[in-house]
Design goal:
This protein is 43% helix and 15% strand. The chain is α/β, with parallel strands linked by helices. The protein folds into three domains: 51-234, Rossmann fold; 253-436, P-loop containing nucleotide triphosphate hydrolases (Rossmann fold), CATH 3.40.50.300; 458-648, P-loop containing nucleotide triphosphate hydrolases (Rossmann fold). Strand 11 (371-376), helix 13 (384-391) and strand 12 (396-399) form a beta-alpha-beta unit. It is elongated, with a radius of gyration of 34 Å. Belongs to the TRAFAC class TrmE-Era-EngA-EngB-Septin-like GTPase superfamily. AIG1/Toc34/Toc159-like paraseptin GTPase family. IAN subfamily.
């Protein structure tokens, strides 16, 4: 089977996301937390007509009158649905649990005609009394077009500003549906966009489900009204005042000052919850779905609520989405004020990185401004992992879970995060907007790919030994002196520095680095600066310019290049271009760069081959010569196109670091085994020599 292309992977992810979002909100169980901090019990599911208005009107919209007729009969509990005129709005009445229900049947041509629908819209308003309260979109999947979707949106917007909040979609499967038809259909942008606008309220139905003779028809009727009631509970129509009996007081919404969600792959989440609220101050855990191990606790007297989210790593998208939506529902209309990734002391594992990526994939990138990282233990505050998060605009904090005095420091960080995101937390509405933007962006992305976005910002990192001319080359790219340069036997650049310019209307960002591999920095400084040279250009640099003097390629140069490849990973060469400085030497000697390369040593030729033969020459004495810069950018653009627009990311760097550590451990183990073998060999040799000496002594005694 052929490998999936990038576009196919993108489509598949979209399909999974859309399927996961369907019907999940209906499955969520509301919880309440008592004000006195005592144990609270799960909320009882409300009666299916609890949130129905006293005189409800339901508008049926769709592209097939037979579907509207069948659904109308189910809603009214009738076996016959008499329509006098299929070209006009028809109003029919019935009851559900002794409550009056009005169903308004609209003609098919309302979605297909090109004429203005004002008259029809006015008929709907006139016939719906105090409503309309609910809009049911009955759509035949194979026949629903983008033009009908546009028309439908226009009608709903004309009927009410809140129409989409009061809309439930019923998608009817094709009678000739083939395997995976639904998955294929859900990739249609106009369908996905409509589902998003309807807040993911969508049910897939069979045509037989609404046959009056079907044995489950009464179940289907109750299910429909239950879904309608659930929708109105979350987005009540104008004038709707649900009548709640005394037994329904559990649904009263609790006001919570701050909602925090602890997530991560480790078991430290519970310890972190006890640290934040102190074990004795935490209310009893509420777990309506024990298999999911949701933990919802309240810190007495603090106006603070904590939710422990199960690990997302290794779970299918549908499960992740359901857990996250359940989490959002528990936090109520205020939403989540901070998602806190709890990490243990030490290097990040693949599971740790996966947790953050999966939360972002599930809830959209809009979750990142609401995210912070909590390192547990007395870690070094300049540890590479913390620097990586800080540079990526995700605040990171290190605490000792045994030191209660640090709780205030954590809450201060949460408060800072909340002020940035005022006035709201992360809610289901934030999720809807985020996923809507993703789908719109991905639609445009598919149309552009595999274009590399040459008009976008170009991100460049300069690497190499001290004294090769990295800072001067950066200034040449920028067209002015921004990076400090001066003749010196020691390194001038001590830390990574970021500058940017515009070349022909295009943003170019350059990071200059200190000599990372020639003993000018300590090991810990190298770790920090290596991370910064990538994270300063988040999501990562498009190119690493390996800066070399136009001179003899020495043994030291070879070792430096091998160190760079080892520390950044073998995959670095995919993003690397060799930049020669001192191009004035070629001009003075009247030599071409091609002639110079022919005379170079074999290890350098191998390096050049690994870099795809990419190189460029700078004369940094001619800083105003923009032609040499434009030629370099053209070379970079060609490489970026070959890489399908990808960049070198922090994940790649951390993976390279993990590989290096594993290699060092293997080498250490091999060295230990070698020493053990040599020790055994010496012991055996000693024993043999000893045995020989003893034999000689015995021989002497016998003689």
């Amino acid at each position: 089977m052929a490998a999936l292309t990038e576009k196919q992977k993108l489509l598949r992810e979209e399909e999974k996301l859309t399927r996961a979002l369907q019907d999940l909100k209906f499955k969520l169980t509301a919880l309440s937390v008592q004000e006195d901090g005592s144990r609270a019990s799960p909320v009882k599911r409300s009666d299916s007509c609890l949130f129905l208005p006293p005189d409800m009107s339901i508008v049926l919209l769709g592209n097939d009158w037979r579907l509207k007729e069948a659904v109308g009969m189910i809603l009214l509990g009738e076996t016959k649905f008499s329509l006098d005129n299929l070209h006009k709005c028809e109003k029919l009445s019935g009851t559900f649990k002794d409550k009056p229900v009005t169903v308004i049947h609209t003609p098919d041509h309302l979605l297909t005609t090109t004429s203005e629908p004002e008259q029809m819209i006015q008929e709907i308003i006139d016939q719906s009394g105090s409503g309309p309260h609910v809009f049911l979109l009955l759509l035949e999947s194979e026949d629903f077009s983008e033009e009908e979707k546009t028309r439908l949106e226009s009608i709903l917007e004309s009927l009410s500003e809140e129409a989409f909040q009061q809309t439930l979609m019923l998608m009817f499967r094709s009678r000739k549906e083939e395997p995976e038809f639904r998955e294929k259909y859900m990739t249609e942008p106009h369908v996905k966009d409509l589902i998003i606008r309807c807040r993911y309220r969508c049910m897939w139905m069979e045509h037989t489900s609404f046959d009056p003779s079907h044995p489950d028809v009464e179940f289907r009727r109750k299910e429909l009204f239950s879904r309608i009631s659930d929708m109105l509970k979350k987005s009540p129509a104008d004038g709707l005042d649900p009548e709640c009996s005394e037994g329904d007081t559990d649904v009263t919404e609790q006001k919570v000052s701050v909602n925090l969600v602890l997530f991560g792959s480790s078991a430290l989440k519970t310890s972190a919850a006890e640290f934040i609220g102190r074990r004795e101050d935490l209310c009893a855990t509420i777990s309506p779905e024990p298999c999911e191990k949701h933990q919802w606790v309240r810190v007495r007297g603090s106006g603070l609520s904590l939710l422990e989210l199960p690990s997302l790593s290794g779970k299918p998208l549908e499960t992740m989405m359901e857990q996250c939506l359940h989490c959002l529902s528990l936090c109520g209309p205020q939403g989540v004020h901070a998602f806190i990734l709890v990490l243990p002391q030490g290097p990040l594992t693949d599971e740790d990185k996966e947790e953050l990526r999966r939360l972002q994939d599930t809830l959209s990138p809009k979750v990142l401004p609401y995210t912070m990282v909590l390192f547990t233990g007395d870690s070094d505050l300049t540890a590479p992992e913390k620097v990586l998060f800080d540079q990526g605009d995700i605040p990171a904090l290190t605490v000792d879970l045994k030191n209660q005095e640090q709780v205030s420091e954590l809450l201060q960080s949460v408060d800072t995060l909340m002020k940035k995101n005022q006035p709201h937390g992360f809610t289901t509405e934030t999720l809807v907007r985020g996923q809507s933007e993703i789908i719109r962006d991905q639609k445009g992305e598919r149309e552009k790919r595999p274009e590399t976005g040459e008009g976008e910002c170009l991100r460049i990192t300069l690497i190499g030994k001290t004294g090769t001319g990295k800072s001067s080359s950066g200034n040449t790219i920028l067209g002015e002196d921004r990076f400090l340069t001066k003749p010196s036997p020691a390194a001038v650049t001590k830390v990574c520095q970021k500058e940017e310019t515009t070349v022909d209307g295009r943003r170019v960002v350059v990071v200059d680095t200190p000599g990372l591999f020639d003993e000018t920095l300590s090991h810990s400084e190298v770790d920090v600066e290596r991370l910064r040279c990538v994270s300063l250009l988040a999501p990562g640099p498009h190119v690493f310019l390996l800066v070399l003097k136009l001179d003899r390629f020495t043994e030291e140069d070879i070792k430096t290049v091998e160190l760079i490849k080892q520390e950044f990973g073998e995959g670095l060469v995919k993003f690397m271009i060799i930049l020669f400085t001192h191009g004035d030497k070629l001009e003075r000697s009247n030599t071409s760069i091609q002639d110079f390369l022919k005379e170079t040593v074999e290890p350098f030729k191998q390096l050049l081959g690994q870099c795809g033969g990419r190189y460029h020459v700078f004369n940094n004495y001619k800083i105003k010569n923009r032609d040499q810069v434009k030629e370099l950018l053209n070379t970079i653009d060609l490489m970026v196109k070959e890489n399908n627009g990808e960049c070198y990311t922090s994940d790649m760097l951390l993976q390279a670091e993990a590989n290096t550590k594993r290699q060092m451990m293997r080498e250490k183990e091999e060295l230990r085994e070698k020493m053990e073998r040599e020790k055994d060999e010496l012991r055996e040799k000693f024993e043999r020599e000893k045995e020989k000496m003893e034999k000689k002594e015995k021989m002497k005694e016998l003689m």
